[in-house]
Design goal:
eight-stranded parallel β-barrel; 29% helix; eight-stranded mixed beta sheet; TIM Barrel; 2 domains
Length: 381
């Protein structure tokens, strides 16, 4: 992860206008290569939604990454910086028709689906495409479950594979998502067991599948204990070796987003106000739900460190619980409750929100005219 000390070696953080995000490209490279080298033969497709900053995409392209996109704009951005369409896939199962058309015309070959209607759209707008079926799998233990809005029930998998085969596309595999920031490595092995069962059913029905897309979900360190990549790798390879032995030509994809950029960046914000309301201590900062911390409203938490602590101007006994809120005029803009920070925090004091490289810029809007955080990069030299 990016240490605050490393940030300060490269930038005078006290002089930069907040809020801002510092991203270390060296960490991005290390994380990408760790994932690429984890499961033998796996191809890495960075989930652009995690952080769509073009400098990050350009850098990952130079490292040999592929990309997973969900919209026409994400696609156009990648094509504009020279990314080959052959390195782009889309696992969005709710694609706008214009996006399908644009992706097909650009040369994107792989598309996910989970309904008959999605196959109908792909057959009409991207005939000849290779499609992979997204199934619902257990998301227990993930910080951000994704098992309700997306995916077909495995009991319908064969039916949907047959539907695709009888259309103008080619069914080639299965994908799933164990949930974002997944803390339970067993989710991967259980999902692969289900996937292997579908592979075997499909083969008996005359449909030969060859692709397993492992989706995303690899966690980064925040407040809770997270499994190491080696634990996840072990669960994946165990089932691949046991359940897919009859598929020697198996192709593997994985779509890390948070796992690549999450702990490469720290978000810096400033105190703009304090208040006592209803017996609670309120702390207001210049970054909030609408300009960088959207995930907080679903209970996602970060480690926050104040400059006062780093400077040694406060003892642990001088900490009090705060309700931390953002700068907008919407009461939804409240991120954290009972977060302990120094009681003597004052106007302009800096706070460091650690491991915030993912799903901060991506979710940031201009609500209330508030600007998204600026971005500064530590270069890979």
């Amino acid at each position: 992860m990016l240490s605050i000390e490393q940030m300060k070696k490269h930038f005078d953080v006290q002089k930069l206008e907040t809020p801002f995000l510092v991203i270390d490209k060296r960490i991005i490279k290390r994380k990408f290569r760790e994932i690429k080298d984890s499961v033998k033969g796996v191809k890495v497709f960075y989930a652009v939604k995690a952080n769509s900053n073009l400098e990050i995409s350009r850098y990952l392209d130079s490292l040999g990454a592929g990309f997973e996109v969900a919209s026409t704009n994400e696609l156009k951005d990648l094509l504009a910086i020279g990314v080959s369409a052959k390195k782009i896939i889309t696992s969005n199962t709710l694609k706008i028709p214009e996006f399908i058309k644009a992706a097909h015309q650009a040369g994107v070959e792989y598309f996910a689906y989970d309904t008959e209607m999605e196959i109908d759209k792909l057959s009409a707008l991207a005939p000849g495409s290779k499609v992979y079926l997204r199934i619902v799998v257990d998301n227990t233990g993930s910080e951000w479950p994704l098992s309700k809005k997306f995916g077909a029930d495995p009991s319908r998998a064969l039916e949907l594979l047959k539907y695709a085969k009888n259309s103008k596309v080619t069914p080639v595999g299965i994908t799933f998502h164990v949930g974002s920031q997944c803390l339970n490595p067993l989710n991967w092995s259980n999902a692969l067991i289900t996937t292997a069962e579908i592979f075997n059913m499909a083969r008996r029905a005359g449909i030969e599948l060859k692709l397993v897309n492992l989706g995303g979900g690899i966690p980064v360190k925040h407040i809770k204990k997270t499994p190491k990549l080696a634990e996840i790798k072990w669960q994946i390879e165990k089932i691949l070796n046991e359940a897919f032995a009859d598929y020697p030509e198996l192709e593997l994809m994985i779509e890390p987003g948070r796992a690549v950029v999450g702990d490469s960046g720290n978000l810096v914000t400033s105190v703009i106000a304090k208040a006592e309301r209803g017996g609670e201590n309120w702390l207001y900062v210049d970054v909030g739900v609408f300009n960088g911390l959207m995930e907080s409203i679903e209970g996602f938490s970060y480690e926050i460190v104040s400059e006062l602590e780093l400077s040694g101007f406060v003892d642990r006994g001088d900490f009090i619980p705060y309700t931390i809120a953002g700068p907008s005029c919407d009461s939804v803009d409240t991120m954290f409750k009972d977060y302990y920070l120094p009681k003597n925090l004052d106007l302009g004091d800096r706070l460091y929100i650690k491991n915030a490289g993912a799903y901060t810029l991506s979710y940031a809007s201009n609500f209330n005219g508030l600007e998204p955080p600026k971005v500064y990069f530590i270069e890979d030299k």
